[in-house]
Amino acid sequence: GTVRLEIVDWKTGLPPRDDDDYELKQTQLALYAIAYARWAGVDVATVDAAFYFVADDVVLRPDRLLTEQELVERWRSVTS
User: Fold this and answer.
1) 28-31 CB contacts, 8 Å cutoff, 24+ apart
2) Between β-strands 58-60 and 5-11, what pairing exists: parallel, antiparallel or unpaired?
3) Fewer CB in 10 Å around end: N or C, the chain?
């Protein structure tokens, strides 16, 4: 089968306060996954990502990460 990789972003702060906060944090995970995939020379579709909130011992795994195209579209919408 396909080897899957997981990036874990260890957070010392609090888990997301609401859906908007969670969505903003998920943007960061998507960027990490794309950056890692490019650096490692692997398909980004094989890279999963999660948050680990240390103080609360909570792991959050988004259902899906934003694609590079979705990230570019969001960037353009805030810079135009």
Assistant:
1) 29/62, 29/65, 30/65, 30/66, 30/67, 30/70, 30/71, 31/71
2) unpaired
3) N
The widest CA-to-CA distance across the chain, in whole angstroms, is 43
Question: Per-residue pLDDT tens for 33-46?
Answer: 999 999 999 999 99
> Letter for the amino acid at 43?
D
What confidence score (pLDDT) does residue 25 get?
A: 87
Q: What's the pLDDT score for residue 57?
A: 96
Strands 47-53 and 58-60: antiparallel
Which 3 state secondary structure label does DSSP give 74? helix
